[in-house]
Each structure stands twice: as structure tokens, then as C-alpha cells.
Design goal:
Blueprint lengths: L2 H7 L5 H8 L8 H6 L5 E5 L6 H17 L3 E5 L6 H9 L6 E6 H10 L10 E17 L7 H10 L5 E4 L5 H13 L4 E4 L3 H10 L4 E5 L4 H5 L3 E6 L24 E9 L4 H16 L1 H9 L3 E2 L4 H22 L6
Parallel strand pairs: 1-2, 1-3, 5-6, 5-7
Antiparallel strand pairs: 3-9, 4-7, 4-8, 4-9, 4-10
Length: about 325
């Protein structure tokens, strides 16, 4: 994680925690198989549907791993239950480096804040690296009489409880973005959860739901085609992919709604394999054309060390805990 990103997102150094977690496997367990790794195809689970922002980024990473490591890296979509299904599969997989999962802030931070899960994000997984920071874009039905955050807030105040905000489910960062707007602006936009991202986006396009937060890759093409209207970005600065879209914080100072993706593995993967995979991630994001491809989609390349990933998780847990408390949210699933 570079110094600018550390200042921007504020993760604190928990290197000790990272080393303690990675020390769950002795060096004696690495063996010759770790040194030869990989000798067969690698599977990366995505706990979301094909075509989602997570899936798009993962497929780019998987192709680069295929090219650089000499073994095919395949993406296995295991969507359902707000990511729980995919993470259960990954947590129970052999700790040999041949099953990985691209996880998200929802699975590693938000879901654990809302109730008991069949997996523990720290105990059951080995961190490898952050991949990207993905700012959430607040967008609206093209016919909504609001073209920016100021106008949306004014409309919500004029029509309390009459505007709806879609999301792929309760407790997702998409949902919490809506609640953060409500809390910071003193308005009441009603949350409407869907069973997945695609149907929620479709209903914003169709006008059944007025607004929604979502990562940019699947939304920017809709904005450019005039099918939805960009209202504001949940980042701390404007995106190079869409510099004309203002950030929500220009109207609501301090507003931040981002999601992020990270590469993790089942608990107990040998440290030599973790080191190899981390090095491959750092190398691919250091390649300027590859990094630009990610940036052009509206995401920010963000490789890290395993310990920095743990620090980021703790920082995000603290930040979202405050949002959830302020919104008065309770488990609804």
C-alpha cells in the first residue's frame, strides 16, 4: 500500500497481527510443493455473479496470473447469500494455494458486523493482497428531476419517504451508502433490497427505483448511454475515469462510500505460496498498461502486503461500525 493511499484511507500498521496470522503454518510445512508452485490450474472463487464489478476485476487478474505463472487460472462464480456461499466453499478448501477467493469489503467487514457467519474473516482465511479500491457511484433514473447531490437532497426533503434506493441486499456497501446519505443529509430515502446487483440496476434504469450506489464498471456505460444519470461519487477525489462526476463529499463533507476487493486464501496456505502470489499481484499492478485498464473502469489499483490488508480490514470495520450505529441498523436477514 503506497503512502498516498495510506494517508487517504487511513489504515494503521498491524504488522504484528499480520505476521501472527501468517505464522499459522510452520516453515516445515511449505515443502517442495510450495517451491514448485503452481503445477496445476488455480481456481479463484468470486462470490458474486458473472458480469459484476468484482467478477470483471477478478477476470483481469486471473488472466495475468495465467500468463505470468504458467498455469491456467480459472474464475469460479459462486454467488448467493450475500457472499456467504462462496466464502464457505473457500474456507473449507485445501490450504494448498490452488483455491483462492477474491473477497470484498462486504464479506470481510460488513457481513460480520451484522450477525454470526459460518466463517470468520480473520481466523478462517490467509490474507494475500488488496487488489483495488472501488468507489461507489450514486446514480439515478434518467428521468429523476435531480442532477446532482444538492438537488437530490432537496427532492428527498420535499418528498420524505417517497424516494427509493436500491441495493443487492441489506448490509451491503450499496445499502450503507444510502443510509449514510440519510444520516448526513437528514433525509429519508427508503432502502429497497434486491437479490443481486443486476435486478437492482435494471429497476433504476426502468424507474421502479429512483437511485442506487454501485461500483463504477457496470454503471459508467449506462451513464454514457444516457440510461441512468450520475449524481455523485463516494470517493475522496474525482475519478480519472469520469472527472466530470463530482464527489458526494463536495455537498456532504466527509462522505465516503467505497468498496474494495482483496485476494485471500484458506487458512494455513504455506507462507512461500503467499509470498509468491503477493509478488505476482504487486508485479501486475506495477505494469502501467494493466493499471490503466483498471483505472479506466473507475477503480483504483491498490496492491498491499498481507499485514496491510489486515490493517485495512480493521480500519474499515471501525469506520463502518460508526455508520451502522448512527443509522440505527439491525440485522434483517
Amino acid at each position: 500500500m503506497n503512502a498516498n493511499a495510506a494517508m487517504k484511507y487511513g489504515p494503521r500498521a498491524f504488522a504484528g497481527a499480520g505476521m501472527a496470522l501468517l505464522a499459522g503454518v510452520s516453515l516445515a510445512q511449505t515443502g517442495a510443493s510450495s517451491q514448485a508452485y503452481p503445477v496445476r490450474p488455480i481456481r479463484i472463487i468470486v462470490a458474486n455473479t458473472a458480469g459484476s464489478a468484482t467478477d470483471i476485476a477478478t477476470r483481469l487478474v486471473a488472466q495475468r496470473l495465467t500468463d505470468s505463472m504458467g498455469q491456467q487460472t480459472v474464475v469460479d462464480n459462486r454467488a448467493g447469500a450475500s457472499g456467504v456461499i462462496g466464502h464457505e466453499i473457500a474456507a473449507k478448501a485445501p490450504a494448498d494455494g490452488y483455491t483462492l477467493i477474491v473477497s470484498t469489503s462486504a464479506a470481510l467487514v460488513l457481513n460480520p458486523l451484522f450477525g454470526k457467519l459460518p466463517y470468520d474473516p480473520v481466523r478462517d482465511f490467509t490474507p494475500i493482497s488488496l487488489l483495488v479500491i472501488s468507489p461507489q457511484l450514486l446514480f439515478a433514473h434518467a428521468g429523476l428531476p435531480a442532477r446532482n447531490v444538492d438537488e437530490l437532497v432537496a427532492l428527498a426533503r420535499a418528498k420524505p419517504g417517497q424516494l427509493n434506493c436500491g441495493s443487492p441486499g441489506f448490509g451491503t456497501s450499496n445499502h450503507l451508502g444510502c443510509e449514510l446519505v440519510n444520516t448526513m443529509a437528514g433525509v429519508k430515502i427508503v432502502h429497497v433490497p434486491y437479490k443481486g446487483t443486476a435486478p437492482a440496476i435494471n429497476d433504476v434504469v426502468g424507474g421502479q427505483v429512483q437511485v442506487m450506489f454501485n461500483s463504477m464498471p457496470p454503471i459508467l456505460p449506462l451513464v454514457r448511454a444516457g440510461k441512468v444519470r450520475a449524481i455523485g461519487l463516494g470517493a475522496t477525489r474525482r475519478s480519472p475515469a469520469a472527472p466530470d462526476i463530482p464527489i458526494v463529499a463536495e455537498t456532504l463533507p466527509g462522505f465516503q462510500c467505497i468498496t474494495w476487493y482483496a485476494l485471500i486464501a484458506p487458512r494455513g496456505v504455506p507462507p512461500a505460496i503467499v509470498t509468491r502470489l503477493n509478488a505476482e499481484i504487486v508485479k501486475m499492478f506495477a505494469d502501467a498498461p494493466f493499471a490503466k485498464r483498471i483505472s479506466d473502469m473507475g477503480q483504483e489499483p491498490q496492491p498491499s502486503t498481507p499485514a496491510e490488508l489486515l490493517a485495512h480490514m480493521r480500519n474499515e470495520t471501525e469506520r463502518w461500525s460508526k455508520v451502522i450505529k448512527a443509522a440505527g441498523l439491525k440485522l434483517e436477514r
